[in-house]
Amino acid sequence: MDESLVLKKCGYILGNTLGDGSYGKVKSAYSERLKTNVAVKIINRKKAAADFLEKFLPRELEIQATLSHSNIVKIFKIFETSDGKVFMVMELGVQGDLLEFVKSRGALPEDFARKLFRHLSAAIKYMHDQDIVHRDLKCENLLLDKDFNLKVSDFGFTRRIVYTETGKMELSKTFCGSAAYAAPEVLQGIPYNPKMYDIWSMGVILFVMVCGSMPYDDSNIKRMLRIQKEHRVDFPRSKHVPGECKDIIYKILHPDVKRRLDICSILEHHWLVKHGEASGRHHNRPSTSKAALSSKDDKKDSKTEADAPPAPAKEEEHAGPSSNRIDTDCVT
């Protein structure tokens, strides 16, 4: 059946294509019930690889339907048609994704970056507390709503942590995500702690927010890996990044997993909590400067580690509960 007819039957008026992938696409739509615009991810099982259908898609559908947090894209409905198409109706990031945002506006003001990173940290804390990992955190997968609140999206590589009978975490072996955001242990093909992989990706994202550029040049993976293993984090001299912000980035991007900050330590870091949520209210609109996202534009200033006293973290409020079931009323 035609996609627009399927969605119309369920109360959605199909709009423009927002993005295309290997096995499907994302389109905008208008929800007659919610009286608002939504995003619809449409996956075609007939075009998908067996590994995706057997492992990744079931995880995405099961896990994302159970998540309920103000900084995670909300799922309104999941249904499937008889011809093998899966429809995921979700919250729309009307301000687009963080990558395009930084590309068009340049490095974000410190308080605004802090607000967004606090949102990201709260979402990851919520997931990690439930032993759920994302494994594909990157600027493209972070959406901004109409009020410039950050929403984590795209759970295609998500999974639940598995523990042995003795309580030891089973390490992940699958290479997931993008090389530019991948931790050195992942790039080396070493079985890895997926929670700490998420943490590394968060460090890359924060660097992008405050510098307007990538911390590492992924056009040469071997060279990038060597720099990462040397614990080098070079900040552009043209950007003023406060010492406390450099400190949290430097401690997140630590090649030694045992010395890398975990999510609780991030939330307790002085840079993230010293001003509280109120400080971001005057920075709900980012800089209007124009700067393309590049890892090569500016001369770099090497960072040395500096200590910052921790402060107690302030917990984020969760969104109200959402449905954790797959709807069947629209299945055709």
Automatic annotation (TrEMBL):
Transmembrane stretches, start-end: none
Entry-linked SMART domains: S_TKc
Residues reported in the UniProt entry to bind ATP: K41
Spans annotated as Disordered: 277-332
Keyword 4Fe-4S attached: no
EC number: 2.7.11.1
InterPro entries (alphabetical): Kinase-like_dom_sf, Prot_kinase_dom, Protein_kinase_ATP_BS, Ser/Thr_kinase_AS
Boundaries of every Protein kinase domain copy: 12-272
Pfam families: Pkinase (PF00069)
Cofactor(s) this protein cannot do without: Mg(2+)
UniProt KW Metal-binding keyword: yes
Catalytic activity: L-seryl-[protein] + ATP = O-phospho-L-seryl-[protein] + ADP + H(+); L-threonyl-[protein] + ATP = O-phospho-L-threonyl-[protein] + ADP + H(+)
GO molecular function: ATP binding; magnesium ion binding; protein serine/threonine kinase activity
Gene3D superfamilies per record: Transferase(Phosphotransferase) domain 1
Name of the top EC class for this enzyme: transferase
Keywords assigned by UniProt, alphabetized: ATP-binding, Developmental protein, Differentiation, Kinase, Magnesium, Metal-binding, Nucleotide-binding, Phosphoprotein, Serine/threonine-protein kinase, Spermatogenesis, Transferase, Ubl conjugation
Residue ranges with Basic and acidic residues bias: 295-306
One GO BP: spermatogenesis
Similarity comment text for this entry: Belongs to the protein kinase superfamily. CAMK Ser/Thr protein kinase family.
Protein name: non-specific serine/threonine protein kinase
